[in-house]
Each structure stands twice: as C-alpha cells, then as structure tokens.
Design a protein that fits this description.
With 190 residues, the chain is mostly beta strands. Helix content is 0%, strand content 51%. It contains no helices and 16 strands. The strands form four sheets. Strands 1, 4, 5, 6 and 7 form a five-stranded antiparallel beta sheet that branches.
C-alpha cells in the first residue's frame, strides 16, 4: 500500500534496449534525464513520497542535481545542485546537443511551476545561466526544447489577461526572447 509510505528511497536501473539486461544505478537517483551524449544527467537525489490524492510519486527530501552519468561512488559529491527539496513535481528536458537543459519545478501539486534554462559546459559539466535565458520564469507544465530554442506557456495574469507563449532562442551564448499576444487555452505541443 504505497499510500502508507513516506520518505521512500528510490532505485533506478538502466535497461539495455537490445538485450533487456537491467543494471542497477549507484545512489538514490530518481527520474534521471540523461543528456544525448550519455555523459550527464539531471536527477532527483533523495527520498520520494506517494501522493495518495493524485496516486503518483513525488520528490520529498533531497535535491535536483546535474550529475555525471552513470553515477559512481567516487563522483557522488561532485554534482551541481539545481534546487533543494521538497518539490511537488519536476520536469527535465535536454536539447539534441546535450548543451542546453530546461528544468521545470512546481512547489505545490498544480500545473504551474517555474522554468529555468541552463547551458552545460560539455567539458567540465559546469552550469551557466546566460543573460537573457529564462530563470525561474512562471510556466505551465510542459515545455518544448530543441533546435536552438525553448518554448513554454506562461500562466494567465492576475489582471485577467490570458496566457502567453514565450520563446527563448540562442546562438552560441547569445540568448533572446519573444512572447505572443495573450490567449486562452494555449498548449505547447512537443
């Protein structure tokens, strides 16, 4: 009965798609999002808890980190913290180059959270927040990233104004943004 469980430790396995062989991953990683090169991942490190109302697992105590992939005991203390928990939900997506990662975090169980775009130094795994890139921008759940851009929907404004589509695009380390006129029922299709 998962509804009686709190502070559960997660177990992650890597599955070889060709053979079906499962390999346990070191540490307490939950929902790792591995970059296309297979060198880095963003994962929840810590405990998870079952939300009986939504009948789903959520991050509990811990933190969201950029880590080397697959994690090893020697590299356990070398991750870069993105957020400290608890968090109600997280969504991590990489672009096709593995150099850019979007991180959406919700503090409470809802479809509204915050989106931050990071650039990952491919050599050292350092995170950069570049000028012009979204940092903790209010965003509805679900965003799209790839081909030099990230797109998300900002929630409706307090003044009754509708939602906006926001797009941040980059070339090298230059980032620019644009937004749409307000609208109702806007959804990003990935």
């Amino acid at each position: 009965d998962p509804s009686a469980v709190t502070g559960t430790r997660s177990v992650t396995v890597a599955v070889d798609p060709a053979s079906g062989t499962e390999t346990p991953i070191e540490g307490e990683t939950w929902r790792p999002a591995v970059d296309p090169s297979g060198e880095h991942a963003v994962a929840w490190l810590g405990t998870i808890a079952f939300d009986a109302e939504d009948r789903t697992w959520r991050p509990a105590e811990g933190r969201l980190e950029l880590i080397a992939w697959p994690p090893t005991p020697a590299a356990a203390d070398e991750g870069v913290e993105l957020i400290e928990g608890p968090a109600a939900d997280v969504d991590i997506r990489w672009d096709e180059t593995g150099e850019w990662v979007g991180v959406w975090v919700a503090d409470s169980p809802s479809d509204i959270g915050r989106l931050t775009l990071f650039r990952v130094d491919p050599e050292g795994g350092r995170l950069d927040r570049l000028k012009g890139a979204p940092v903790e921008e209010p965003a509805l759940a679900g965003f799209s990233i790839g081909q030099g851009r990230v797109a998300w929907v900002a929630p409706s404004g307090a003044d009754g104004e509708g939602s906006h589509i926001h797009v941040a695009a980059w070339v090298g380390s230059d980032v620019g943004t644009a937004e749409s006129v307000p609208g109702q029922g806007i959804v990003i299709i990935r």
